[in-house]
Write a sequence for this structure.
C-alpha cells in the first residue's frame, strides 16, 4: 500500500507509517539500520500479543533513562534485532521468531531488578514462551517452542546468542543503538552494516569497523559504571524492595509491570512516595563513589552483576590474533569498578 491517503467510501483512509510496530504494514523499516523487513504472518501476530506490546513500555536503558536520553524502548531494540536477523538470515524463520521473543522476560526498567526476590528475566522469558499466548501462536505456525528456546540458549552458538565471548546480533544492536542515543555514533549505521558479516555465528568486520565497534562497547561499559546509571539504578532497586516488603505486590506481579505501572506503584505507596519523587526531580542530589568505602547510616551499597564486552571478529579472526590492540581495550574494561556506595546529599 502507498504511504498516502487511500480514498474509500468513507473518505480518505489514514495509513500506518513504515516504522509502525503493530504489524499493520507488509514491511517494517528499522529507523537505525534502515533495513526493511517483510513481516511473516507469525511475526505480525507476535507483534500484537501482550508480551511484545508490553516491551514498548519498558526502557531498554533501564534506570539510566532517568538521567540520560537513553529513552528508547525494549521493543525498539527487539525489532532492531529482528531486522539484523532478517538482513543476514532472511529465510531463517525460526531465528527470526527467536529474535522477536528474545527479550519478553525482561522486568520493568530492563536489567535494574535482576536478582531482586530471585527474579531472572531469562527464566521468566522461557516460562512465557511455554505458555499462552506465545506457545500456541508459534506452534500453530509450525514452529516448535523448544526449538526457539534452543536457539536462545546459545548452545550451540547462533548469530542471535552465544556463550563464546564473541559479538552477536543482539549485543550489536544494543551497542550501536545506545551509541546513537548518546550521540557517540560517528558512522552511519547502514555503512557499518555494509561492512559486517557473520563468521561462525559471530559478527565479523574489517579492522576499521571493528575498532569503531570496540569504541562503542567500551563507551557502553563506561555508561553502565557511571553516576548516570549506577545512581538511579541503586535507588529504584531499593524502592522495588521496599514495595515488596510493605505492600501486597508479589515478585511475579512486579516482573510483569511496565515502567509507567512501576512509577505509579511507587507513588501510591507511602513508604516509597517521597524518594520516588526525589529520584525524578532532585536527581542532582545523588552521590556515587566507586569501591568499598566504609558504610555509614545514610549510604547503601550497589554492585553491578556484569559488564558486557563481547568482541567482534576481524576478517573472521578473533581479536587476540588479528587486532591485539583492540583486544587490550576490551580487556581493560575488567579494571572498571563494579561496586559502589550511594547516598543523598
Amino acid at each position: 500500500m502507498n504511504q498516502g491517503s487511500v480514498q474509500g467510501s468513507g473518505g480518505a483512509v489514514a495509513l500506518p507509517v513504515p516504522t509502525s510496530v503493530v504489524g499493520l504494514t507488509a514491511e517494517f523499516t528499522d529507523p537505525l539500520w534502515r533495513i526493511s523487513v517483510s513481516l511473516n504472518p507469525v511475526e505480525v501476530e507476535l507483534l500484537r500479543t501482550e508480551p511484545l506490546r508490553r516491551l514498548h513500555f519498558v526502557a531498554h536503558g533501564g534506570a539510566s533513562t532517568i538521567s540520560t536520553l537513553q529513552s528508547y524502548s525494549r521493543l525498539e531494540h527487539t525489532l532492531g534485532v529482528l531486522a539484523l536477523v532478517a538482513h543476514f538470515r532472511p529465510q531463517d524463520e525460526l531465528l527470526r521468531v527467536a529474535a522477536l521473543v528474545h527479550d519478553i522476560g525482561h522486568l520493568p526498567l530492563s536489567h535494574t531488578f535482576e536478582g531482586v526476590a530471585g527474579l531472572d528475566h531469562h527464566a521468566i522469558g522461557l516460562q512465557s514462551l511455554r505458555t499462552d499466548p506465545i506457545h500456541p501462536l508459534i506452534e500453530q505456525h509450525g514452529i516448535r517452542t523448544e526449538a526457539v528456546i534452543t536457539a536462545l540458549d546459545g548452545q550451540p552458538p547462533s548469530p542471535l546468542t552465544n556463550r563464546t565471548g564473541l559479538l552477536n546480533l543482539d549485543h550489536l544492536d544494543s551497542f550501536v543503538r545506545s551509541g546513537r542515543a548518546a550521540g557517540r555514533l560517528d558512522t552511519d549505521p547502514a555503512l557499518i552494516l555494509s561492512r559486517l558479516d557473520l563468521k561462525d555465528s559471530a559478527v565479523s568486520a574489517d579492522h576499521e569497523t571493528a575498532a569503531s565497534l570496540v569504541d562503542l562497547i567500551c563507551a557502553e561499559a563506561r555508561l553502565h559504571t557511571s553516576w548516570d546509571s549506577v545512581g538511579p539504578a541503586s535507588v529504584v532497586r531499593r524502592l522495588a524492595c521496599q514495595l515488596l516488603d510493605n505492600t501486597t505486590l508479589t515478585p511475579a506481579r512486579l516482573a510483569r509491570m511496565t515502567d509507567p505501572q512501576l512509577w505509579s506503584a511507587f507513588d501510591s505507596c507511602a513508604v516509597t512516595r517521597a524518594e520516588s519523587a526525589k529520584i525524578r526531580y532532585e536527581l542532582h542530589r545523588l552521590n556515587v563513589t566507586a569501591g568499598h568505602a566504609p558504610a555509614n547510616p545514610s549510604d547503601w551499597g550497589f554492585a553491578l552483576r556484569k559488564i558486557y564486552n563481547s568482541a567482534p571478529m576481524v576478517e573472521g579472526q578473533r581479536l587476540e590474533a588479528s587486532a591485539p590492540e583492540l583486544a587490550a581495550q576490551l580487556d581493560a574494561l575488567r579494571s572498571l569498578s563494579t561496586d559502589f556506595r550511594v547516598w543523598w546529599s
